[in-house]
């Protein structure tokens, strides 16, 4: 089962649980800002923002069934499918991009770099990038599965869940390198509850396009 097939298969049943830091977000993003959520799933974060008074909201996801659910549950927000690697927006057309547990779904460094390059392309000068994602777990269970899948998936930190989803946890050095062309405004460590109910270290990052 590939990634798109997996996310389509759980589009009606999956509930995402990562907390969105509205207080930090609001310090950098105005209510009328052009906000784009890449990998928006069924639109949970954009619905939070809509309820808080943000007005220009667009969500993209490669799972067409996730987008169908998002449109059904919140028709007032613009949701569209996107092809991998290309965001269908003009250069410097966006004030803020949200990446909420998206990097964890992209195994390769190359694909992650391509996505960040696309985000920089669509962001206006000084635009804001908001990211939530996972860091490497130090416990034996995770370290064992990182080693198990390293050869198959090509990176230490990636693994396959029993239901078929492929996920990745990251080193802080990798995250720092990935966002090298952004000016860090906030970087906070957080312990998240994963989709399967486990505790996992993670981070919230807010950066400004240089």
Would you give an account of this structure?
The protein contains seven helices and nine strands; from the N terminus they run ααβαβαββαβαββαββ. The strands form two sheets. It has a seven-stranded mixed β-sheet with strand order 3-2-1-4-5-9-8. Strands 6-7 form a two-stranded antiparallel sheet. The mean pLDDT is 92. A hairpin with a 5-residue loop joins β6 (158-160) and β7 (166-168). The chain has 210 residues and is α/β, with parallel strands linked by helices. Helix content is 31%, strand content 30%. The termini are far apart.
Summarize the structure.
The chain is an alpha/beta fold and 210 residues long.
Key descriptive features of the protein:
7-stranded mixed sheet; 9 strands; alpha/beta; Rossmann fold; 210 residues
């Amino acid at each position: 089962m590939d990634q798109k097939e997996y996310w389509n298969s759980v589009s009606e049943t999956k509930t995402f649980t990562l907390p969105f830091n509205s207080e930090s977000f609001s310090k950098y993003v105005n209510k009328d800002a052009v906000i784009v959520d890449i990998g928006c799933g069924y639109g949970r974060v954009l619905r939070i923002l809509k309820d808080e008074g943000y007005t220009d909201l667009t969500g993209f996801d490669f799972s067409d069934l996730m987008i169908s659910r998002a449109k059904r549950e919140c028709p007032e927000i613009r949701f569209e499918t996107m092809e991998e690697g290309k965001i269908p927006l003009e250069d410097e057309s966006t004030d803020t991009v949200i990446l909420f547990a998206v990097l964890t779904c992209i195994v390769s460094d190359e694909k992650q770099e391509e996505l960040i390059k696309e985000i920089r392309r669509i962001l206006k000068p000084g635009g804001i990038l908001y990211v939530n994602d996972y860091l490497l777990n130090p416990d034996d269970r995770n370290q064992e599965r990182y080693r198990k899948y390293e050869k198959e998936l090509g990176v230490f930190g990636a693994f396959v869940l029993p239901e078929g989803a492929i996920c990745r946890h990251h080193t802080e050095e990798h995250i720092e390198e990935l966002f090298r062309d952004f000016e860090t405004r906030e970087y906070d460590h957080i312990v998240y509850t994963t989709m399967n109910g486990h505790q996992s270290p993670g981070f919230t990052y807010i950066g400004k396009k240089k």
